[in-house]
Design a protein that fits this description.
Blueprint (H helix, E strand, L loop, with lengths): L2 E5 L4 H17 L2 E8 L11 H31 L2 H4 L4 E7 L2 H11 L4 E6 L4 H7 L2 H8 L4 E5 L9 E5 L12 H7 L5 E8 L2 H6 L3 H10 L4 E8 L3 H12 L3 E4 L6 H5 L4 H7 L5 E3 L3 H7 L9
Helix pairs in contact: 1-2, 4-6, 10-12
């Protein structure tokens, strides 16, 4: 892992995301790129060159972001007793004028990010659908893993991880290397969870072949597989997280329409509305490319 992009909006949850980024960078040796997307308070005067004005605004915002990064690094370093460690981390800053969703995706490509760490703020499904959720939107489009961090949950090492997935919808070509690479430095116990929606699914699907493939793709990690029947998958995942006292949840989010989100059909949306632990979202392309179609997973 070489580069971690951290979108910053100066809120408490983005500050906490930076705390996670500092810890992960100290473990992996990655550089951090702080990124801020903005709109100007008022449009530039017609007499000025718009391109020059935008460039000046972006430069000024980037300087402010650098100041924020240095200040926050010092504060968190003193709070955690890790200031000397944090000071060794390379931190850069960038700002672009435009919508957060579009600019974050652009920054991920421009800086060749290996990981994105974003703040995650809870909210109901209707508010997510109407107001939009940058975190969920970016998860569904991003081609690198995204670690979504709840506002009030400080960093702790990922010792026990739950990977909730629909193994019925996992083709043999599914790429799990991003998950393996992310988790290896933490040496966690990885609980792979598959939930059947009803007893008919339980009777008609044998997961043994898929389990063997997953074991091969995640070599080097301590794996444990759990199969259960839950009619409400989101609640089943959340309950399993509590039972296992997990430090991290892993999902593969899929695209959902406005109506799906409004009706709260997205499992990712339900879980991020009431986050219990950080969420690592593997790229949707993980399954999309493997299936060679736009068919969504039934569970996410």
């Amino acid at each position: 892992m070489k580069t971690i992009v951290v979108p910053i909006d100066y809120s408490k949850h983005s500050r906490n995301a930076l705390g996670y980024a500092l810890e992960i960078a100290s473990l992996t040796g990655a550089q951090l790129v702080l990124f801020h997307a903005f709109y100007p308070i008022m449009p530039p005067p017609a007499s000025l060159d718009t391109t020059d004005v935008i460039a000046a605004l972006e430069e000024g915002k980037a300087r402010s972001l650098e100041d924020f990064g240095r200040t926050t690094l010092t504060e968190l370093g003193k709070e955690n007793g890790r200031l000397d460690v944090y000071k060794t981390i390379v931190i850069k800053a960038g700002a672009r004028m435009g919508g957060s969703y579009e600019m974050i995706l652009e920054a991920i490509k421009r800086y060749e990010a290996d990981l994105v760490i974003m703040g995650m703020q809870g909210g109901g499904a209707i508010s997510q659908a109407l107001l939009g959720s940058n975190t969920i939107s970016v998860m569904q489009e991003c081609e690198v893993p995204i670690l979504a961090v709840p506002e009030n949950i400080p960093f702790r090492p990922f010792r026990k991880v739950v990977f909730a997935t629909n193994m019925r919808k996992m083709p043999p070509t599914t790429d799990l290397e991003p998950l393996r690479s992310f988790l290896l430095p933490f040496e966690p116990e990885l609980k792979v969870l598959h939930l059947y929606r009803n007893n008919m699914q339980l009777a008609t699907f044998d997961p043994s072949a898929v389990q063997e493939q997953v074991e091969q793709k995640l070599q080097g990690l301590a794996l444990d597989f759990t199969y259960d029947v839950r009619d409400n998958v989101a609640e089943g995942i959340q309950r399993f997280i509590q039972e296992q006292q997990a430090d991290l949840l892993v999902l593969i989010p899929q695209r959902h329409s406005f109506l799906d989100r409004l009706l709260d059909k997205s499992i990712t949306g339900k879980i991020t509305a009431h986050p219990q632990v950080p969420l690592l979202a593997l790229p949707s392309v993980t399954l999309k490319n493997a299936q060679n179609s736009s068919e969504s997973m039934a569970e996410a």
